């Protein structure tokens, strides 16, 4: 239980938020595939990242923590250990499970994935179907964990058109092909996050891009690399919205990743009239220092399917921003939200309604009328539904809520942002 605070005198200060979760997962996995030592500077340290490292250790991969760097010391995928009857506990992490299912399918190394209650309800058929079409064989609990891969892929070459806007599905197939060393061509008409594609050349892998398709020729071997991980825009998003809706705030967010496949929230908040300034920095992954100043004249907006992959994880906090915007915000094409760590469509709607927001759920998003003054008449329990992004969104909502609100499950923030409440304290002082 955590009593949530109201912000009486605005949020102020600078911070470099947690490092990017998606990039850290990928750097650890690609580093493990390469023989030698890969250096990852400023990786995220969180429960989901621990799940990825724990799953790679039985293959003979060592992780050495040195200050703000993780050294991935690996025998390389050609020399991985091949333990029998491997059971991997993936905790809460969908990304670890789906990406590593691809790795194990490429290695043709039988494995069983298990996870926590939330992960055990999340759909795995989306990776079972394409990997099975490539010759892999799985046993699952009706498309859910426990998921056993009985044998890996054998098809070549691989030609895959992404059927849904999921970077995790894209990466499952990409990694299977890379590890099996088969020529792999992937078409991503949804323009899902492209961190793996951006990072592969640093690991010595050549990609050929043609429009929405990219091709990785077979028989390439990864070499170790040095990767610096920028701050996660999905974490910075909470402060972008907090800085916008909490009166008298000025927040500087340092070194935020603004890769265009991830930065939809900046476009959305800008169209809503938020005051966001970007100071672009030169780096391998596009980065910027982001300054946010309170803007109480927010306008409603419309978000449709085309934009959804660029802001999928930010929709809960965008929904909160929309409760403070004048007019009707309609978010559609986001049915994927229903199969995240919790059903985020119902969780966001139920919890924000408790605070007096005018929000209703649709099968693929939300309809929000604003602005609403958020308040509770009597002490109210808010439920993060065990989902880190819902817990953080509600903690930001509380900053502008009148009345006594308590979050029943604050610990979930450890999935992606273990220092969230510490950073909030910093901005309140
Ligand atoms: C992720 C992709 C997204 C996102 C998740 C991380 C990744 O999921 O929601 O938090 O690192 O590839 P989908 O690709 O399933 O939409």
Commentary on this structure:
The chain folds into two domains: 2-19 and 231-428, Enolpyruvate transferase domain (UDP-n-acetylglucosamine1-carboxyvinyl-transferase, Chain); 21-228, UDP-n-acetylglucosamine1-carboxyvinyl-transferase, Chain (Alpha-beta prism), CATH 3.65.10. The two termini are 22 Å apart. Helices cover 30% and strands 24% of the residues. The mean pLDDT is 97. The strands form six sheets. It has a four-stranded mixed beta sheet. A four-stranded mixed beta sheet has the order 4-5-3-14, with helices on one face. It has helices at residues 21-33, 47-56, 94-107, 125-133, 167-180, 195-199, 233-245, 264-271, 315-323, 344-354, 388-399, 420-428; strands at 2-3, 12-15, 36-41, 62-66, 69-74, 86-89, 111-114, 137-140, 147-151, 158-161, 184-187, 208-210, 213-216, 226-228, 250-257, 275-281, 287-293, 302-303, 327-331, 358-362, 365-370, 380-382, 405-407. The protein is built from twelve helices and 23 strands. The chain is of the alpha/beta class and 429 residues long. Bound molecules: shikimate-3-phosphate.
Kindly provide the name of the CATH class of the largest domain. Alpha Beta
The neighbouring-strand order within the major sheet is 2-15-17-16
Say what oligomer this is: single chain
Instruction: Provide the number of structural domains.
Output: 2
Please render the helix and strand layout as text.
Blueprint: E1 2-3, E2 12-15, H1 21-33, E3 36-41, H2 47-56, E4 62-66, E5 69-74, E6 86-89, H3 94-107, E7 111-114, H4 125-133, E8 137-140, E9 147-151, E10 158-161, H5 167-180, E11 184-187, H6 195-199, E12 208-210, E13 213-216, E14 226-228, H7 233-245, E15 250-257, H8 264-271, E16 275-281, E17 287-293, E18 302-303, H9 315-323, E19 327-331, H10 344-354, E20 358-362, E21 365-370, E22 380-382, H11 388-399, E23 405-407, H12 420-428
Parallel strand pairs: 2-15, 3-14, 6-7, 10-11, 18-19, 22-23
Antiparallel strand pairs: 1-23, 3-5, 4-5, 7-9, 8-9, 11-13, 12-13, 15-17, 16-17, 19-21, 20-21
Bound molecules: shikimate-3-phosphate (S3P).
Residues 22, 25, 95, 166-168, 171, 192-193, 312-313, 336 line the site of shikimate-3-phosphate (S3P).
């Amino acid at each position: 239980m955590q009593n949530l605070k109201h912000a009486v005198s605005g949020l102020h200060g600078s911070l470099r938020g947690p490092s990017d979760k998606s990039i850290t997962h990928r750097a650890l996995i690609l580093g493990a595939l390469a023989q030698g030592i890969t250096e990852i500077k400023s990786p995220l340290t969180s429960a989901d990242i621990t799940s990825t490292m724990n799953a790679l250790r039985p293959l003979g991969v060592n992780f050495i923590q040195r200050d703000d760097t993780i050294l991935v010391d690996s025998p390389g995928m050609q020399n991985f250990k091949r333990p029998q009857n491997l059971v991997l506990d993936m905790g809460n992490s969908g990304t670890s499970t789906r990406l590593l299912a691809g790795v194990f399918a490429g290695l043709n190394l039988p494995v069983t994935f298990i996870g926590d209650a939330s992960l055990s309800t999340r759909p795995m058929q989306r990776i079972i179907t394409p990997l099975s079409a490539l010759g892999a064989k799985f046993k699952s609990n009706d498309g859910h964990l426990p998921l056993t891969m009985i044998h890996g892929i054998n098809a070549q070459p691989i030609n895959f058109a992404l059927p849904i806007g999921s970077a995790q599905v894209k990466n499952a197939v990409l990694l299977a092909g890379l590890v099996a060393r088969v020529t792999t061509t992937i078409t991503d008409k949804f323009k899902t996050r492209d961190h793996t594609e951006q990072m592969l050349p640093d690991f010595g892998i050549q990609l050929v891009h043609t429009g929405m398709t990219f091709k990785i020729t077979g028989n390439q071997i990864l070499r170790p690399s040095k990767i610096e991980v920028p701050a996660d825009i999905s974490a910075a998003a909470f402060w972008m919205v907090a800085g916008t809706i909490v009166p008298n705030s000025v927040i500087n967010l340092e070194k935020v990743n603004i890769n265009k496949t991830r930065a939809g929230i900046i476009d959305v908040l800008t169209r809503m009239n938020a005051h966001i300034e970007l100071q672009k920095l030169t780096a391998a992954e596009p980065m910027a220092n982001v300054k946010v100043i309170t803007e109480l004249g927010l306008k409603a907006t419309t978000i449709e399917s085309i934009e959804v992959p660029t802001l999928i994880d930010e929709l809960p906090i965008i929904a909160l921003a929309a409760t403070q915007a004048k007019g009707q915000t309609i978010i559609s094409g986001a049915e994927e939200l229903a199969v995240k760590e919790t059903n985020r469509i119902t969780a966001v709607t139920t919890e924000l309604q408790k605070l007096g927001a005018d929000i209703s759920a649709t099968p693929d998003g939300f309809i929000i009328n604003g602005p609403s003054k958020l308040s509770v008449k009597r002490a109210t329990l808010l439920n993060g539904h065990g989902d880190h992004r819902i817990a953080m969104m509600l903690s930001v909502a509380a900053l502008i809520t009148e009345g006594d609100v308590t979050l029943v499950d604050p610990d979930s923030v450890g999935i992606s942002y273990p220092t969230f409440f510490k950073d909030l304290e910093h901005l309140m002082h």
